[in-house]
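[job 4471] stage=fold_predict status=RUNNING
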Amino acid sequence: MMMIKDNISIGKNLVLSAALLIIIQMCPVVPAFGVAEFEIPSSFNPVGSGARAIGMGGAFIAAADDATAASWNPGGLIRLTLPEFSIVTAGFHRKEDIDFQSNPEAAGSHSVSEKNINYLSITYPFGFFNRNMVVSLSYQHLYDLNRDWQFTFQNSMTGLEDQWDVAQSGGLSAVGLSYCIQVIPELSAGFTLNFWDDDLGKNRWEQNFRADSGFAGMPMIHFDRKEKFSFSGINANIGLLWRINYKLSLGAVLKTPFSADVKREIEENQIYISEPENITFSEQDARNETVEMPMSYGIGLVYRCSDQLFMSADIYRTEWGDFIYREENGNEKSPVSARPLSESDVKPTHQIRAGAEYRFMNPNKGYIIPVRCGIFYDPAPAEGNPDDFYGFSIGSGFTLNDRFSLDIAYQYRFGNDVGDHILEPLGFSQDVKEHTLYFSVIFYP
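[job 4471] inference complete, writing structure tokens
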């Protein structure tokens, strides 16, 4: 008799498992979050730091003349004549209005806010062998990876409801060691070695995806996937600055490609709610993988109208087709679209930035009050053609002799109908609006 009851119990479980499999097939597509390991919500493109530069729209390759030059164009460090200690803080608020063509009921607004130390440096100019030289040690926060989404999908044919919770947190940063030398009076050259290491700075992120599927708020299936990543590598910024004459300066920078080691930890749980007990499948894994980071390069011009007014413009290209995620088994994918590399078509992006600064100067009291503004085109890599992002910035500050300098900048960046590669099977698109405030302090000890 006991054997008959056990067989009946086993039979019930088999029937239940089969029913659950049928339900799974009727549910909306569950995305493999974590496959596109580098879904970066903020600007993809490598840019520098500092409220002064951002206030000019980021057009700073040829204008770089403070410690943040290590991140824009290390050749500009030669313009420093005094030791500097600088710190830059930043805070942003990003709003994403999301739409799904296949499931309009899941559309809605999502937002995330964050603040961080954007840049920190100590810089020392000196002379050696009748040459002006500068060395600098810096920290730069480069990429923000924070995101928070909640979606509810409904299947009108089956009555099933899926609730998704998608969260991503973390960022990428680098510690930089810079050197610049005056080659001839009009020409300087410099480099920054960037050390991307989780032990030195914030070079890790975490992705969490949770989904509950059931009827009328009664979950039948629970899915939970957590992935943790750490990132390490070394690359260089190489820059030149040529002062053609009093009015015109030319700058150029190359940010070298590099291979980064990625340690990836995965934890996944699937729970099928049933009687007399739930059915649970769990998986844990750890992998050593690689990311090929692309090369980027740009040129900039500064035109000095007078001692008080100058204008600048930059153009910058990043080879996103060379951005590759290599899994532990050797498979290569595009981190932008998560497609196999052989099926992916991600084109380079071209940033265009322009800005101006006007200085109100009082030589008797020894202070300067600048006013800055800028505009930019900052496209993000995407499958096919890049997503179009635009923006503008304004800024001001206060500098007192050779004692200190304060700067503040506001930047607005936006893109409409972008990101369709993120959840392509569901007809995903979003309108992005991002507000960022930068504050810089420079001390001259």
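[job 4471] summary: The first helix runs from residue 2 to 26.
[job 4471] exit 0
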